[in-house]
TrEMBL record:
One of its GO terms (molecular function) is ATP binding. Residues 2-246 form the ABC transporter domain. One of its GO terms (cellular component) is plasma membrane. Pfam families: ABC_tran (PF00005). Residues 248-272 are annotated as: Disordered. It is a peripheral membrane protein. Its main location: membrane. This is Phosphonate ABC transporter ATP-binding protein. It comes from Pseudohongiella acticola.
Amino acid sequence: MLKLTGLSKRYDTGDLALNDINLTVPAGQVMALIGPSGAGKSTLIRCVNRLVEPSHGTIELDGQDVTRVRGARLRQTRRQIGMIFQNHALVERLSVMENVLSGRLAYVGFWRSFFRRFPADDIRQAFNLLERVGLQTQFDKRGDALSGGQKQRVGIARALMQQPKLLLVDEPTASLDPKTSRQIMRLICDLCREQQLAAIINIHDVVLAQQFVDRVVGLRGGELVFDGDPKDLSPDILTSIYGEEDWSVVDDDDDTNDSSAPAGVDIAGAHP
């Protein structure tokens, strides 16, 4: 479980990016973080994984105060926080398997990782995850030979290789087409529920969030202005988050023929 209490961040410029944020995200819950650019969404995620130091407040992950740890303890804490990046952040000259196994770098030590000598259990887990995300037949393909959707699937598998307790996801569908976006969102949400992971997804696509997540939190000007069920995002609430606009409901019925696996991939196949 993730718990934020009185979380605030004021930058050296004097800008207040977050103001007294109080949130609890239980295990297995997928929460979407929405709001206009500059609302504080990225700052909140960066505070949670300590890429940005909070000015005030506490961040607790399963009872441990993340804001107080330093050095080796901070590195150990970060093992428990998986990140999925908007730009995928793959090493494109490496294979899919090598990119996924990089999720174990914090565990195996420098020399084993340098010579790519990962334990057999890690390799089996990597194959299992590649099968789950629909890429088991692509394990030896280079990262730069993948489509955007495939790269995002590799990023998901890599994050899960850490065996995290919390998943932070930054705009996972920003560069994807509508069908692939739905597949990726469905896959992330299904995996979080299967593995009882708390997750925060920073996302601009409100309709996509409404379709898949358990809960939506809206930020504006660094303050929490909505926290509730996706179905409760009325035009008035969207106006309070984003400002005046025509918030007519978009009819976006789920594609029942869509699956979480990319076309042409049989996720039931055997391991290579």
